[in-house]
Amino acid sequence: MPRARQEPEKWRFTNALMRQALLAIGEVMGEQGLKVVLRQAGLERYVDALPPNDLEQDTPTVEYAALNQAVEEFYGRASKGMLQRIGRASFRYGVEEQATLMGVAGTALKLMPQKTRIKFILTQTAKSLMSVNEDTYIEVQETPEGFVFADFTCGVCCCRNAEQPTCHLYVGSISEAVKWATGHDHEVREIECRAMGAEACRFLVVEN
Which pLDDT score is estimated for 102? Predict the structure, then answer.
């Protein structure tokens, strides 16, 4: 069960993760697109000034959610695909800049079966996120359909309300993580979302 935490409005977000998201948005949308989204989200202070690449929690998590919402509003119906692309790019930046933190540096994944690789990368991702932020709680569960990555403290939809699952960036990040570990794309979909009133944002990784 999730451990005791602060109220979501007080959750803090890791600088390196915010930095990776901003770099990813700049890559996918271009620098001008990034600036537009930052101003739309009320985050002008990040224009031409990325957060430091460290593990301090200097960003309110609600600002990370506002950034995601601004991209969603910018693209409208096309936002799902764009946010997934941003999530994929964000994971790649994470591997490049924080591989040791993620517990994937020098890992001999090729020696593992495919299923073990999926479980490994999901478990390591959960451990790394929880290790740097006491507000974070994630569980990885194995089900008949595949693995479920359950984030009880999802920053993408923090303090938001929605009628449909909204954590498309997270879907992209998990998709890229699984592809990085296995060499293949796997179906990943959000089956429950905190923005819809669920206890956790749950992402199903289907075993091919």
Answer: 59
